[in-house]
């Protein structure tokens, strides 16, 4: 059945219309802190309850507990830091002097207020140590480590009040946890599995989704692509969402699969990130969570199956659906894994986003064993991949 939110209560830190109107008159007198887009996504997700039970950015005690034990001070599992670095002086003169008890408006790149933060704590944090403890490395080649090392050395902790949702990503609305829970109810889904992704689907992804839909206990599947901050070489959010829509429309029962965006920045933290992403989906109402090989991994920083084992250490109230690496077997004639396929490596065709992108860029036709033609049509659009 639909699980309770993490911690038992769905947090709602959204300002009411009356409160927003009252606050607008005060904003001109409040200090304003331009916040990096990653933390803007985090502020929004705190405000709508996606990060329940968090009601604001973590203080020093919470950060230490999460980094050292993978738990909040209450003992509740939580694996990734949610912190707010203080903007540098050149970006926001004067805000470095703010202390506990002060209030500050968190603004986007255009200066528009997104949230109000009541500072409860201003503290220093060790950036290399945070990177090492959260991501297992201090290597600046790791994308999230590079972000941490580029931050200032101070952070603010405190409860926030969300003034507005961020602009939609991928040209479609993004439902919050309360809205998705209501949608599951309308669909009659009691046990929902979540599928985490950040790329368009190829047949290895489809294979895991089909195995999940075959389970008797699963009523429906939420495909929940992360469509946050992008970099060169990524597919545009609308392309990812349209590609999944094409797959679902052509090959899945319409009453069993939905595709909805999730605007957060991807954390490539291997097992810690897999657990975090499962907790977020629990808040959206999912009772099961698909965990493939090397989920949330990048490069060679993590044991590919550590993301499976972490769920043996931390019980978050979500059933992990653990799957091994899959491939197309010419002998079997379909997708398979080591568990079901006896044939050698010569018969196996590996699927990968790198191969898909390179082949499409060259104008090559990928076999349907790798990529459904309906999906390939979407990915061939001009400008599907960011070039800058």
Question: Explain this structure to me?
Answer:
There is one protein chain. The protein is an alpha/beta fold. Helix content is 32%, strand content 16%. The chain contains twelve helices and 15 strands. Strands 1, 2, 3, 4, 5, 6 and 7 form a seven-stranded mixed beta sheet that branches. The N and C termini lie far apart (44 Å).
- The average pLDDT value, as a whole number, equals 94
Number of domains: 2
N-to-C SSE series? HEHEHEEEEHHEHEHEHEHEHEEEEHH
- What is the CATH top level name of the largest domain? Alpha Beta
Task: Present the secondary structure layout.
Layout (H helix, E strand, L loop, with lengths): L16 H11 L4 E3 L2 H12 L7 E2 L2 H10 L14 E2 L17 E5 L5 E6 L2 E4 L2 H9 L7 H7 L4 E9 L14 H11 L4 E6 L5 H11 L6 E6 L11 H15 L5 E3 L11 H13 L4 E4 L14 H8 L5 E4 L3 E4 L4 E4 L10 E2 L3 H9 L11 H7 L9
Parallel strand pairs: 1-4, 8-9, 8-11, 9-10, 11-12
Antiparallel strand pairs: 2-7, 3-7, 4-5, 5-7, 6-7, 13-14, 13-15
Helix pairs in contact: 4-5, 8-12, 9-10
Structure characteristics:
single chain; 388 residues; alpha/beta; Rossmann fold; seven-stranded mixed β-sheet; five-stranded parallel β-sheet; globular
Please provide a brief summary of the model.
32% of the residues lie in helices and 16% in strands. It has 388 residues and is an alpha/beta fold.
């Amino acid at each position: 059945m639909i699980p309770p939110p993490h911690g038992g209560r769905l947090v709602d830190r959204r300002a009411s219309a009356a409160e927003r109107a009252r606050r607008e008159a005060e904003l001109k007198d409040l200090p304003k802190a331009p916040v990096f887009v990653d933390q803007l996504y985090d502020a929004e997700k705190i405000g709508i309850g996606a990060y329940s039970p968090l009601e604001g950015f973590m203080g020093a005690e919470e950060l230490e507990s999460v980094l050292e034990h993978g738990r909040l001070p209450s003992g509740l599992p939580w694996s990734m830091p949610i912190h707010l670095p203080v903007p540098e002086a050149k970006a926001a003169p004067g805000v470095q002097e703010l202390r506990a008890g002060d209030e500050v408006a968190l603004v986007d790149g255009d200066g528009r207020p997104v949230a109000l933060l009541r500072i409860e704590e201003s503290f220093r944090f060790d950036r290399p140590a945070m990177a090492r403890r959260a991501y297992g490395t201090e290597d600046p080649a790791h994308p999230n480590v590079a972000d941490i090392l580029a931050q200032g050395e101070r952070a603010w902790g405190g409860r926030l009040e969300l003034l507005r949702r961020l602009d939609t990503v991928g040209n479609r609305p993004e439902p919050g946890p309360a809205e998705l829970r209501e949608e599951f109810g309308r669909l009659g889904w009691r046990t929902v599995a979540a599928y985490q992704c950040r790329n368009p689907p190829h047949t290895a992804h489809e294979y895991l989704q089909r195995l999940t839909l075959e389970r008797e206990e699963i009523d429906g599947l939420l495909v929940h692509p992360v469509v946050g901050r992008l970099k060169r070489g990524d597919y545009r959010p609308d392309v990812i969402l349209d590609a999944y829509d094409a797959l679902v429309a052509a090959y899945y029962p319409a009453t069993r699969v939905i595709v909805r965006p999730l605007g957060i920045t991807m954390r490539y933290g291997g097992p810690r990130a897999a657990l975090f992403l499962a907790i977020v989906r629990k808040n959206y109402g999912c009772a099961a969570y698909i965990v493939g090989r090397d989920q949330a991994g990048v490069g060679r920083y993590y044991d590919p199956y550590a993301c499976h084992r972490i769920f043996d250490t931390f019980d978050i109230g979500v059933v992990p659906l653990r799957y091994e690496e899959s491939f197309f077997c010419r002998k079997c004639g379909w997708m398979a894994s080591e568990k079901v396929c006896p044939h050698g490596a010569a018969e196996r065709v590996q699927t990968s986003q790198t191969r898909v992108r390179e082949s499409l860029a060259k104008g090559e036709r990928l076999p349907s064993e790798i990529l459904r033609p309906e999906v390939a049509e979407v990915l061939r659009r001009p400008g599907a991949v960011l070039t800058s």
